[in-house]
## 1
Amino acid sequence: MSIQWFPGHMNAARKKAAESMEKTDLVIEVLDARLPLASSNPMIEELRKHRQRPCLKILNKADLADPAATKEWLAHFNGAKDTHAVALSCKKPADVAKVPGLALKLAPHRGTALKPLRMMIMGIPNVGKSTLMNALLKKRVAAVGDEPAVTKAQQRLYLGNNMVLIDTPGMLWPKIQHPTDGLMLAASHAVGVNAVIEEEVATFLAEQLLARYPALLTGRYGFATEGLDGVGVIEGIAQKRAFRVKGGELDFEKAAHTLLIDYRGGALGRISLETPASRKHLLDTYVPPVLLGEPRATEEEDDDER
Ligand SMILES: Nc1nc2c(ncn2[C@@H]2O[C@H](COP(=O)(O)OP(=O)(O)OP(=O)(O)O)[C@@H](O)[C@H]2O)c(=O)[nH]1
């Protein structure tokens, strides 16, 4: 499958994010816990490191991810000094309540009424940025939706009197470093897909599930998966659910859609599409992006009035 890039939009997004970064003390990067690497955008790391900003990485939708894989990802991300990674569900108030404390820990030089901690929530579409922001603010301020890139406008919102949220929802497109990234993102609904591509995405997803979670497929759809490939799984779903088009043929499209909906909503169980081990090759060969220029000398220059 091919994912189109829009360099004009990318450059505009990058410029805006770079400007916002100057007025930010801490980056809250929201990732999808089911695919933390594919749902990251290296531009965030590049921009924040350039300004020496610490990062709270939130592996969101942890309620949908495989807990064992999430544990591995946390160990992977928590090696860096200026980064803290936490897995949570932004839909759970008790989980979100941990965020301010973790944020303050990462930027102890801020967090007073005079010098509020300025936080920027960043991430690719549909990872849950608005859900997090709304939960932090405990009221609905940004549109939350199933369609990627629901929220457009940038906002600046006070959280108590010692923290400020700067939100850039949907600003950053995923960086597709490998073809399977695009398929994982499409399966998880971070990028929209048409019906034709949906069948390809569902076939890819079925193959992933066959390799790592065959019991979940059997549990959900009630057929044995031995000897099947991705297409066979989708045909099996169509057969079991009696999805047929006019003329009696199996309705592959409907079965493909069903598999995707079931995965996205967690009906199949808790699933992760990648682990540090499955992405080892990419992690080993990762080349850090080129910095934009010299990092700033001191923190003091960045203070701004409220
Ligand atoms: N299961 C589950 N769903 C979540 C969680 N957080 C967000 N969602 C759902 O994910 C979808 C996208 O959430 P948003 O908060 O709109 O995501 P966003 O990153 O602001 O999206 P854009 O506006 O497209 O940039 C919504 O359907 C949310 O209800 C979570 O922790 N668990």
## 2
Amino acid sequence: MAAPAPKSVLFVCLGNICRSPIAEAVFRKMAMDAGVADKWRIDSAATSTYEIGSSPDHRGQACMKKHGVPMSHVARQVTKADFTSFEYILCMDENNLSELNRKANLVKNYTAKIELLGSYDPQKQRIIQDPYYGSRIMWLASTLW
Ligand SMILES: N#Cc1ccccc1-c1cc(NCCCN2CCCCC2)c2ccccc2n1
């Protein structure tokens, strides 16, 4: 009997240096711990060109190191081919979702299921917010308004 086709998932956020490389690294560790890593193609990408070529954000790297999750990634932008070569494209917020759907609609016969990663959260936290400016700036903003 032929082996089933590998499953595939692409995690996407705005810059591919914070949320999506962490999601990729954690998912890969979960697959490895479950003994099914060889059955998955796992990657991450950006909707934007902001950080192409960059390593993951230092805060995320520190967090992954603290929790023993290997993370190694070079930021890239999502490509037309991704919309037909990945079974799932899972993103972080509504901006990512609308941008991905806009890009997908430029691809003839795209097959990827484009969803919010948070839609799988048992605690129903659908949106994974962009941490780029950190909580301090949000605190500052809250003191100003
Ligand atoms: N944009 C926005 C934005 C809005 C709200 C919260 C966060 C962000 C934000 C900003 C970033 N880079 C600074 C602006 C980049 N430049 C914007 C104008 C074009 C030239 C590039 C990020 C970089 C990597 C990952 C996530 C990021 N997220």
## 3
Amino acid sequence: MNLKTDEFFSKADDLIAAGRFIDSKGWVPATSGNFSARLADGNIAITVSGRHKGQLQRDDIMLIDPNGQSLDGQKPSAETLLHTSLYRRYPDVQAVLHPHSINATLAARLFEAEIVLEDYELLKALAGIDTHETRISIPIFANDQDIPRLAARVDQFLDQHKDTHAYIIAGHGFYTWGGSVAETLRHLEALEFLFDCEIRLHGVKQP
Ligand SMILES: CSCCC(=O)C(=O)COP(=O)(O)O
Ligand SMILES: [Zn+2]
């Protein structure tokens, strides 16, 4: 049976275009990052491990089941569990994007457990926010090569913090999600801008 439907190719094309844009900004260097989109049957289109995310072709997007098992014999992202955990938790989430931007990579060197974003007009680019008079926290987790352990730590945090839009992994990058690839890309771009603001502000405030 051919599992790669028109819907799969349409979502794959969205991820490929997102990857080109994200790479044009320098946010997925040297094969870093991973992207996924949920399909109507619950399976997930996700980037094949080790591919350059700015140069994706249709063959670089594969199919996994909701538990992260490959359905087409290719090897999914090493960080697949961080995607499947988000889809399991949030029924409305349709896409997950993970860049390795400089700002997200450096954030934990400047901030400890979180970055607080407050009083920025661009917060309105995040789903559900309609005023700059909003305060959100983006948690920072220690990096970990043990992805199941990292996923468990993230899960434990999200159990207690329902309204989280993204998380940073120290020295690594960040994860964000949304109701479509386009919405998730908007979240990614807005958060990246806001991290940049906070990092510049931090530099200005230093004695
Ligand atoms: C070269 S980046 C190291 C792995 C990583 O953090 C990443 O985002 C890419 O891994 P993948 O298996 O998804 O290609
Ligand atoms: Zn990564």
